[in-house]
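Exercise: predict the fold of this chain.
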Amino acid sequence: MNESRKGMRLEPFTFTIEAGKIREFAQALGDDNPDYETGKRIPPTFATVIEFWGSKKPMEDVLQLNMAKVLHAGQEYEYVGDMAVGDQITCEGEVIDAYTRAGMNFVVVENKYKNQRGELVLISRSTIIERS
């Protein structure tokens, strides 16, 4: 069953970057960089905010995961462009790998983020483990 998730496309969504969300995220991280406070720059892991607030359905529902058994095993971000306050970022996700090992389900999700001009600005990959 786990392998059948491979190739699954997630519903795309669009998120507008707001200075307030950047500031909130930086505060949550305990990072007092003044550029984050003003929205001049965006923290490297800000894509987490985009995914959390932009997606209409939680990933655990889409992937039919039992959250009591889920571990977030890895996260990587590949920045290929810039993002700024006011940008409308569209995220398109896909399960690029799904397998079972040692009785646990592994799911690797890749999200591609494009700005309002259709330019790719970020690729993120997250590995999720669902324990048995």
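Check your answer against the key: The chain has a mean pLDDT of 93.
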